[in-house]
Amino acid sequence: MFEKKKKFKLTAVILILCSLYLIHALYVIFAHNPSFELLSKNTISYSGLKAKINSDNTKISLIRVSLGTKEDSIYPIYEESSLNEVFEEKFISIPLNQEDEVVKFIKKNKLKSLYLYYTINYSNKFFDSDINKKIKISIDFEPPSIKSVRTDSYVYLGGIGYVTYETSSDTLSSYVETEIDNKFYPITKVNENSISNLVFFTCGNKPCKNGKIKIIAEDLSGNSLVLSKKIKTLRNKKWKTSDIAVDSDFVKNKYNEIFNTSIKSVTVDNFLELNLELRKKNNLKITSETRKITKNLITLGKFVQLRNSKVFSRYSDKRDYFFNDMESSLMTTYHWGYDLSSIENAKVYASSEGIVTFLSNNGLGIYGKTIIIDHGLGFYSLYSHLSEISVDVGDMVTSKVVIGKTGQTGLAFGDHLHFGSYIQGVPFDSNELWDKKYFNQKVLSVYTNFINPNNMNLKSQGRLKAE
Which residue segment(s) compose the domain that 323 sits in? Predict the structure, then answer.
């Protein structure tokens, strides 16, 4: 009797283990196999095709993609073999152009759709297998249109410009490039059969490359159209170059303050870590904090310089840094703002109406205690080296509101305010904000006429849409 019970228990255990193994095998068979996802919304265009392969813990040895009719695969367009690798996901991009045979086939036969065939060879824990499927896809070789381009066709060196244009209603995204590492996106109005766009831009501290800007429009299928517009840069200023000598004591004190350390001596590496590497990191942070176009905020008033202040360093001044008694400079930077001096711990007011979107009481590296204010339309102002901050993120402020006090936090040589102005993440010359007549001409009146051609008062405007 005892032996029978023992055999029964052993049989039950074996059956349970076999069942678990079978369940696991079935799970691997049905769940652990690759999948193919077309990212271009089941549409083919001149931008080609983009897809994602999810491997789900399988080893893929071959990916093959071709195009053809419902009955047959005709034109191979992608193949990758001998992979034998395990990955969670893999992205592939397949460009096309007018000379490709499949494009000629599509145009010759005036096709509005065709089929994408894909093969994936893979292996899992139990077997080797493959997937062979096809997807019906639409054809779209027609890019969006750009028309009615208007601008005053000039910028001052280091200043801002604008352009308005119409794009067709199939436009997914449009933007302006000025050949600097940034895209400038529009404020838009959606019309019945088109989209109206207004873009404020800057070419940075250099003339617009080749004397032009590029307007790019893209549709959902990935088709794009590029249109160039001439922009003249008026050279009304020259940038100053300064030699700045720093000694070990200054670097040590600032290094300990900013990095919260207590080192007794500093080297050239410490100086470069502070003034070069940290500067790059801080500038990237400022770029990210000033890139967005706020949808529901409109710049209403004029911009004012720090009260009773004098300018002792300007936008784009070039600085060569010398450490101790070295004969050659260690590094060169450009100054992306204005240094304004007044009395010690002078009250700092918001330069214009806006919303506080960023502040750092602990110090933003070389900038020290810092505030950023969003004025709408992609315009921001920055206040740094502060000794005190008296506002919070989200506060609505005007030029009558004290936001802090001047100081020498961060990499500052003395008590002052570093003031910077930004358009969609790119610094520009603040003089164009402080000149009320020019700012009205170049920005506010342009926006007013764009949002309401009947020139209704700005304060009565509703919301603006930003992309």
Answer: 241-434
